[in-house]
Specification:
The chain has 17 helices and 25 strands. By secondary structure, it is α/β, with parallel strands linked by helices. Among the domains are: 116 residues, FAD/NAD(P)-binding domain; 120 residues, FAD/NAD-linked reductase, C-terminal dimerisation domain (Enolase-like, domain 1), CATH 3.30.390. It has a 7-stranded mixed sheet with strand order 1-2-5-4-3-9-20. A 5-stranded parallel sheet has the order 11-18-12-13-14. The protein is globular, with a radius of gyration of 26 Å.
């Protein structure tokens, strides 16, 4: 056991270990009892992740009885987004919490295998696509596919991922004063008892925060070397792929497929449902979908909708995939790389002793207070099903903490702003145009490019991140739509493909969901700062003078 709270218990050996890993000497750090710095946490985390078999000791940050002998108000099983934010909030409200995670760090899969690498890869894809498009013009050199390496970019991420975790460990201990046990698996005994590192802890409540994992299709060959999902790509990729087949049509499939294609790895996406029309994506506007899919194909991605994967081929390593197309014909694609983007489900084996109610899809049943069917047990984040989004994980963790501490707090996560990356940022909130027309008799839209324009010669919406495209090939500069109820003048939905819109859409979503809504006239009164969402402001200003609104 490594005690990171009490320097008299195991701390000296920890300092020696950090010194051996290349950390600063004791003279740079002061006394042995000084808190670990972010850099020291990073060294420790990287060593445990790289050599788990030699680093089995738990990282222990639990208050001694003389420091705090109160009963725990909650034990958070899992220290990802839900567990860390819920713990911090409960602690801030005066409660006592304990957070347990099998990994040697807090923060969960987001900075380790999911959100952070996805954003890095999407940023690389954006830069690569621009370099390929502009090659030989201005200062851009000829584009060389061989210089863009998936493996090199994955290794770049792997080399730096310890620091976000280190910051979270340091912040959780030094700033948030959380109690935690890391690098140790929890065993659920009952609704109030958890065993970890050979000791049992009890609490008034349990908060379950262990997330979800990719569900691989049950087809022959799916276990061959060369089959990856977003997590195993980070951990196990050790060669440079030349051709990729993606099985599935989830957000992950679109995002990672766009990254692979941008590096020069030819991508084919096999999806049963049409892309961006799956049940997990809500309020997708048809015009936005058409533009996104067209631009993916324009960049060379092959998309096969209505496809049923049959087998992954290979002798020890992937060599191809067979599938049945929408017409029932069996076809084969040669490939050295298969990526699975079929969605995620939680592993609930850990919670078997609790007897939780589970829905038909395999998710934990909970109410709007995050309460499960077992009194005193709360579920959060991906355990509850879609959307598998960070805001939901954090807010359900905090919501559970608020209810545990006596507040009557409900959270409805069925409506929210959403986004995905292809090469572009694709961002939306509120209703699609079709949904708006089903609910309101008089709907107008502001759209760029308009339906009757030639997008190859219509250089709007051009703004931050897409201005070069506007001057070289306008169709690549993006797409936007604002959906408005002409009778009330309220904005019903906003949809954007381009760059720089995500932050603004968080606020647009909040404004349009207020009981009083947000009108075209109020949008026109904002002071635009010339990011992409400012097109909504200036275009609204051009129409707001009309007593009877019409399309723009």
């Amino acid at each position: 056991m490594i005690n990171v709270r009490n320097p008299a218990d195991g701390f000296r050996s920890l300092r020696a270990r950090i010194d051996a890993l290349g950390g600063p000497g004791h003279g740079d750090r002061g006394e042995d009892g000084a808190p670990l710095t972010v850099g020291e946490w990073a060294l420790l985390i990287d060593d445990i992740v790289a050599h788990p078999e030699a680093n089995t000791e738990p990282l222990w940050n639990v208050a001694a009885p003389e420091e705090d002998d109160r009963e725990y108000d909650a034990i958070f099983v899992g220290g990802g987004a839900a567990g860390r934010f819920g713990s911090a909030f409960l602690k801030a409200r005066g409660g006592r919490q304990l957070t347990i995670d099998a990994w040697p760090f807090l923060g969960g899969s987001c900075p380790h295998q999911a959100c952070v690498p996805h954003h890095l890869f999407s940023e690389c894809a954006r830069e690569l696509d621009l370099a390929r498009h502009m090659q030989g013009r201005l200062w851009y050199p000829p584009f060389d596919d061989k210089r863009a390496s998936i493996l090199e970019i994955v290794e770049l991420f792997r080399a730096g991922r310890g620091y976000p975790h280190a910051i979270m460990n340091w912040q959780s201990k030094e700033q948030l004063d959380m109690e935690f046990i890391l690098n140790a698996r929890a065993t659920i005994i009952d609704a109030h008892t958890v065993e970890v590192a050979g000791q049992r802890f009890t609490a008034r409540n349990l908060v379950l925060c262990t997330g979800a994992r990719t569900i691989f299709p049950e087809i022959p060959g799916i276990g061959l070397r060369g089959v990856f999902d977003f997590a195993s790509l980070i951990e196990d990729l050790d060669y440079e792929p030349n051709r990729c087949v993606i099985i599935g049509g989830s957000k992950v499939a679109l995002e990672y497929g766009s990254f692979f294609q941008a590096t020069g790895c030819q991508v084919t996406i096999l999806t049963r449902s049409p892309l961006m029309r799956t049940a997990s994506l809500h309020h997708i506007d048809d015009g936005m979908r058409d533009y996104v899919i067209a631009m993916m194909r324009d960049r060379g991605i092959e998309i096969v909708e209505g496809a049923e994967p049959i087998e992954v081929l290979g002798n020890g390593k992937v060599s191809g995939v067979t599938y049945r197309d929408a017409d029932g014909q069996v076809r084969q694609i040669d490939t050295d790389f298969v990526f699975v983007g079929t969605g995620e489900r939680p592993n609930l084996d850990l919670y078997a002793p609790l007897g939780l109610d589970i829905d038909e899809r395999g998710f934990v049943v909970a109410d709007s207070h995050m309460r499960t069917s077992v009194p005193g047990v709360y579920a959060t984040g991906d355990l509850l099903g879609p959307p598998m989004e960070m805001f939901k994980a954090r807010k359900t963790g905090v919501g559970a903490a608020r209810n545990i501490m006596g507040e009557d707090y409900e959270f409805d996560f069925t409506q929210y702003p959403d986004f995905l990356h292809t090469t572009y940022e694709v961002t939306w909130c509120g209703l699609s145009e079709a949904e708006a027309r089903e609910r309101h008799p008089n709907v107008i839209k502001i759209q760029m490019p308009p339906d009757d324009a030639d997008p190859e010669t219509f250089a709007l919406p051009a703004a931050e991140g897409s201005m070069i495209y506007a001057f070289t090939r306008p169709i690549l500069s993006g797409w936007l739509k604002l959906v408005i109820d002409a009778d009330s003048r309220k904005i019903l939905g906003a949809h954007h493909v381009g760059f720089g819109a995500k932050d603004a859409f968080q606020y647009i979503d909040y404004l349009i969901r207020r009981p009083e809504g947000f009108t075209i006239d109020q949008m026109a009164e904002l002071n635009e700062l010339f990011l992409n969402p400012e097109h909504f402001i200036q275009l609204s200003r051009l129409r707001a003078g009309q007593a009877s609104l019409v399309n723009l």
